[in-house]
Amino acid sequence: MKTVTEFPRKVVEFSDMGIVMPDGCRLSARVWMPADAGDDPVPAILEHLPYRKRDGTIFRDQLTHPYFAGHGYASIRVDMRGNGDSEGLMDDEYSEQELQDACDVIAWAAAQPWCNGNVGMMGISWGGFNCLQTAAKQPPALKAVISLCSTVDRYADDIHYKGGCLLIENFGWASTMLSYSSRPPDPLLAGDNRWRDLWLTRLENQSFLAPLWLKHQHRDAYWKRGSICEGYSAIKAAVLSIGGWHDGYRNTISHLAANIEAPVKGIVGPWIHKYPHYAAPKPAIGFLQEALRWWDRWLKDIDTGVEADPAYRAYVMDSVRPARWHPERPGRWVAEADWPSPNIKAEAIELIPEGAKPVIVASPQSCGLAGGEYFPFTFGPELPGDQRPDDALSVCFDQPPLGEAIDIVGAPEVLIRVASDRPQANIAIRLCDVHPDGASELISYGVLNLTHRNSHEFPQALVPGETVGARVVLDQCAYRVPSGHRLRIAVSNAYWPMIWPSPEPVRLDLSAATLKLPLRALAQRDEVTFPTPEAAAPWATETVRAANSERRVDRDEKTGIVTLSIVDDFGEVRDLEHGLANGSIARETWAIHPDDPLSASGKTHWTQTLSRNGWSVRTETSAEIRSDAQSFMVSARIEAYEGEKLVFERNFEEKIPRALL
Known about the structure:
Blueprint: E1 2-4, E2 11-20, E3 26-34, E4 42-49, H1 58-70, E5 74-79, H2 96-110, E6 115-124, H3 126-137, E7 142-148, E8 161-162, E9 165-166, H4 169-180, H5 187-190, H6 195-204, H7 210-214, H8 221-224, E10 238-244, H9 252-259, E11 264-269, H10 287-300, E12 312-317, E13 331-336, E14 344-350, E15 359-361, H11 388-391, E16 395-398, E17 406-410, E18 413-420, E19 426-434, E20 440-449, E21 467-473, E22 477-481, E23 486-492, E24 508-520, E25 534-536, E26 541-545, E27 548-555, E28 562-575, E29 581-593, E30 596-612, E31 615-627, E32 631-642, E33 645-657
Parallel strand pairs: 1-25, 4-5, 4-6, 6-7, 7-10, 10-11, 11-12
Antiparallel strand pairs: 2-3, 3-5, 8-9, 12-13, 14-24, 15-24, 16-23, 17-22, 17-24, 18-21, 18-24, 19-20, 19-23, 26-28, 27-28, 28-29, 29-30, 30-31, 31-32, 32-33
């Protein structure tokens, strides 16, 4: 990545600009803009997040926002209320208050003498979600959006539920946010006599969101609010949607490119949950230059040619040896002028011969441990590994060796006819690339709670023994399977710990299965290119403790319990400008007995530290989830320390009934 230090316009930064909301709440912002913006007003770009601008997202902020400012924009990074250095309280993700605050910041920015009245909004993950949701509110000054690693469907394609199955990330993310939002504002900004009061008020009102999310197990009004798919036409701003094949949010780009009526373009690379100018696996792209083309067209009315860009640009990844981390993925960029594309044809492959006996699917509860993380982001061992351990616990339909290579581009589907011996059952289907020596690489997967076969809003219990039809949609992908390799379709009724298990062991009788494979003519070369990455000067820090990620699977031969242990030590660094040191460590354990779905448990423990010149604080947050056949049991705890003194503690505990889950 090339570091840019000289820009067309000189940049100034306002490190703690207070933006006062209509209700009096002060939001803290970092603002970069051209030094002469007062004489030559510029458009504004907003990023609105709960992740702390001072010590949370500062690494990527420093690469990105000064770059935009140097090219003639006021780039604004706001801490959401209740987080970082902002006042107020946060009670849930994507609340009406959060979105109204974003609209109010947009209106504030547009009215400043240094702004020309046009505003863009961007973000990745949470920021990618809320910029789409804010656009649906249609604030008058918002003209363009760049949304990365986001979703159009809060129920079916987020970290909560997938195919009507409960994702463990529902609990895991609630644990993460409990930790993230438990930290205080920086005394250097909030004031020596004020930061502690703001912190204690924040802690006393802190939400543990897992019970709330678990109380909405079906697609109800709670999830519909903020789901862009409920009304794509509400978005009038031009949308650039970007994602990665190694991220959990790989479907959004296709959904937006196919459904937004406003100007829209999509780009999908080989990346994990990161901005693509520094993402991996490589190749990274010149995202900031691509973003400037978008901003210049829609915020400055400069003809940059973006309207003539292909509707959908995707990186077709080559087959590689399975590994928990890939520093790069060989492949090529393809481009489709229209999306959905007439160049992609579905090929139907019958997996079970007509008249054959039903295939029995009865997987051990521990099937799925090779699946990797839902959205990897540590540049560590989080990707799906060799699928052979999970394949051995699944029913596999292996196809003949390919006589020639194929490019799979799109969302594979499997149409099934199946009977269950229980009223609730899950099914997981994986599409794998099997190498000549047997190594199995995951291409895509899909899961379905079979009680949701007709509706996520109104699920229906299965009648034991009755055969029903269902459609399992796998995640979008772009993958080349070489000649001589085989396709494997692996079917299981457990996928731990990606999804929570059924309340009882299940047997499925699979009587029919048809794979619909989206195939594109083999790309011969890159059909589109991107500039090499550029960025502003990186964040100046010193390392106090190096980062490290660990994953371990253990089987207790006495009890039979299988445990996945995860440690993500994000390290500790000190800011060389203002001296604040911050560090964090996340620990997770996921345990289950192969024969007992009710043995499933998850535990998390986060440590957060902040310090400067003898001042230090620390938060310890822990949480646990279990279930019986009728209910989920969740608990959590916050401990907050000033120095070594415990200054706050709080426990959460709740029992939530299961509803066909």
